[in-house]
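An example makes the point: we print one protein in full, the chain in one-letter code, the fold tokenised, without further comment:
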Amino acid sequence: MIFVKNDNTNPYINHAIEEYMLKNFEEDCFMLWRNERCILIGKNQNTLSEINMNYVKEHNLPVVRRMSGGGAIFNDLGNLHFTFIANNSENRFADFSKFTYPIINALKKIGINADLSGRNDLTIDGKKFSGNAQYNYKNKILHHGSILFSAGIRDLTSALKVKNIKFQDKSVKSVESRVTNINEHLKTLMSLEKFKEFLADSIMSEHKEVKIYELTEEDWINVKKISDEKYSTWQWNYGKSPKFNYFNEKKFLGGIVQANINVEKGLISSIKLYGDFFSESDIIELESVLTGIRYDEKNVRALLKNISIEKYMSNINEDNLIQVMFN
């Protein structure tokens, strides 16, 4: 196990570091890191439908798309992120318990009882303090999560568009009432830096041998290249919104799914599927298969019979996709 030291707070760079580690480090590794104020978008989300653009422009917030699925989150220096990269020979995609256990176990040591709740959340007394997501690459898996330690929760509500569809089955009325900061539950005051050190020590104590690694000059050159060519580009973070004459969104067990479809001469000329669902394979593959076919339910169903939708949308089935495509 390698512990990668990272004191950088540039969100473009931090996500480039994750990708560089995933694709170049052979050993299992983990990293703790923070971002300056920014918004992080899930890989499969429509950026413009998730963010409050006026707030983003007013506060000059970076918007960064992750490699992984899941939902949009607001970040400031009161958030702490953790990343685990491991061999995935057992195909444990969407198994969040293995990677969240070290966090739950560490918190127990300081008198905080946390639980894994729903698809991918960690909660204290029913209030969320951590969201988690995963990404597959060859025979490896990247799991990362955010921890609200002393975050500006009011900024969180201002920066993002809250979707009623996501919370239609919940009785609480506001984002503020659904989330909590770790520092509200500490029995003894602790700074975020001290908490970061404590969490690193706790995770390392669970492994027989841990090497502490600092990125080399060559590493930084490669990381900067990934950041410049991908994570800091408009194309990656926003993309070109397709023209469409049909839009629908629905919430299912696997998350929210949005369908943006343009139909010309009875054929699907373009389709974009967005949402906070998780995906083992790139959703673009499914979109490509659906592009160019006749836009009718019977025809689409016939095509989907030969496709494993679960690969592209975890816990989303054929009927779910038909519902969102044809209402």
User: Anything to note?
Assistant: Confidence is low (pLDDT under 50) at residues 167-173.
